Amino acid sequence: MKSLKIAGIVLGSVIGIAHVGVLGHLIKLSEDIKHPQINLPTGRYSSYKIEVGKDGYKIEYRADDPKVLSSEKSLDLDKEKRGLFGGGSEKRTEYRRDEYTAGGTRNIGGAAIDSEGKSAKEVECIVADAGARSQGAMAGSAISAGVAVPALINIPYIGWLAAGWATLLGQNIGSEIGSEVGSAFNDC
Which residues face 75 on adjacent strands? Predict the structure, then answer.
């Protein structure tokens, strides 16, 4: 019976020491495992997110975050209308939302480039300029025909020629003025 006790104590001691040895070995292995050292470049607008799990790791990195900065403004108008018919008041709120790149340039729409290398905004400005020139030319020729032509047509021998020149000059000046006004209204 005494030898059975000694055998039990020896067997328990051997199992206990082996258990402690195995635990020590596992602890040492976990210390030897090298985790990847990741040195991401950071800047003024950079951001990153790292998720580590049993299956590996996942990195989400943005070098220019936020990509677009925005600004919102509102203006409350509350005024009395004055003019030809007078009276009345006007109450309205105007909103403006602008987007900027990190460099500070304002986004005026359309980054798409067509086959000729023009953006959507440039094409829109060309179309608006053509319409404004056309309207200005019609208005200029109508004004010159009503004001200058009656006076010039009565000049002997060259009245018809002077009247034509006056109409052409009014058309050209009206076209230029229409272009300037159109570019101001269309933000071109």
Answer: 94
